[in-house]
Amino acid sequence: SMEDEGASQREHFGHLYLQGISKIAAMKIVITGANRGIGLELTRQYLARGDSVYAGARTPGRARELAALLAPSGGRLQLHACDVSLEASVRTFASTVSEPIDVLINNAGVRSRPDSLEALDLDDAARTFQVNALGALRVTSALLPMLRRSAGAKIANITSGLGSIADNTSGGSYGYRMSKAALNMATRSLAQDLRAEGLIAVVLSPGWVQTDMGGSEAPTPVAESAAGLIGLIDRLTLQDSGTFLDFRGGPIAW
Ligand code: NDP
Q1: Are 66 and 40 in contact, with CB atoms under 8 Å apart?
Q2: Element containing residue 16 per DSSP (H, E)
Q3: Known Gene3D superfamilies for this protein (predicted)?
């Protein structure tokens, strides 16, 4: 019954379910790189408050934690293959999305080491660019028809403080920094190009987060980063479009 399903969702998602009780309308969200780290936690939290998520994973067959959310979501989670570096994969993913999308979160990203001047790997830098910068633009372009069908849809591109030119006082991390700076620039163009239609595009820094990428020494638990990002995305208006914000909502210098 509906009641049983509600009870099992509350049990599964715990206190997060309660935060969603006061929400007015459920949203449709697309999240890339949703099988682990920040993407997985964003997916969990959106589902917990009653929203629907189209989750993209590079290798869905290995996305066990994400797949475990399918049954308790009661049909609100869809899991599909999406390698953001591959045009055909992104096209196929976009074709599974058949309804207006309120929020697109381009979260998929890579950061490999070494990435220093003394140990440059430019092929790796190019692969990083292909995922972090071109991947987000590729997914956005493919989903644009579905974003345009939702009034005031939001595109949240997950960047990094390392993508800030103004804040670069420590050097290094060539491929990663360049890829995120390029993502920032693409997002600014998206904001300009889509403003007249009421679509919002921003770059958001998740903080330094406890994930495979961030490492265990990172200060920010993934739940805190994801909750901050979700609250921030909820509050975005057209005035914010084209800005670079951290997960608590503060501005970051370009
Ligand atoms: P993780 O390394 O934990 O997860 C990265 C996710 O991106 C995985 O789901 C991974 O999938 C996916 N991914 C990688 N390449 C592709 C691809 N080609 N197509 C689709 N998905 C892909 O990282 P985080 O969760 O920490 O990072 C998420 C985002 O936040 C990234 O954009 C990252 O740059 C950014 N960020 C993170 C910070 C941190 O401290 N953690 C700090 C600043 C920014 P798979 O499992 O298949 O590899």
Answers
A1: yes
A2: helix 16-19
A3: NAD(P)-binding Rossmann-like Domain
* Å from CA of 220 to ligand 1 middle: 16
**How far, CA to CA in Å, does 146 sit from each of 62, 63, 68, 69, 224?**
28, 25, 27, 24, 29
Query: Is 110 near ligand 1, meaning CB less than 6 Å away?
Result: yes
ipTM above 0.85, yes or no: yes
Report pLDDT digits (tens) over 199-227: 999 999 999 999 999 999 999 999 999 99
- What one-character DSSP code corresponds to residue 17? H
Each residue of 169-206: b (16+ CB within 10 Å) or e? Answer: eeeebbbbbbbbbbbbebbbebbeebeeeebbbbbbbb
Q: Whose C-alpha lies nearest to ligand 1, atom 32?
A: 109
The atom of ligand 1 lying closest to the CA of 218 is 40
Amino acid at 38: I
| Atom nearest to 161 CA in ligand 1 | 43
Quote the CA–CA distance of 106 and 122 in Å, as a whole number.
24
pTM of the model: 0.92
Answer yes or no: is the C-beta of 59 below 6 A from any ligand 1 atom: yes
Bond into 72 cis (ω within 30): no
For residues 245 and 242, give the distance between their C-alpha atoms in angstroms, rounded to a whole number: 10
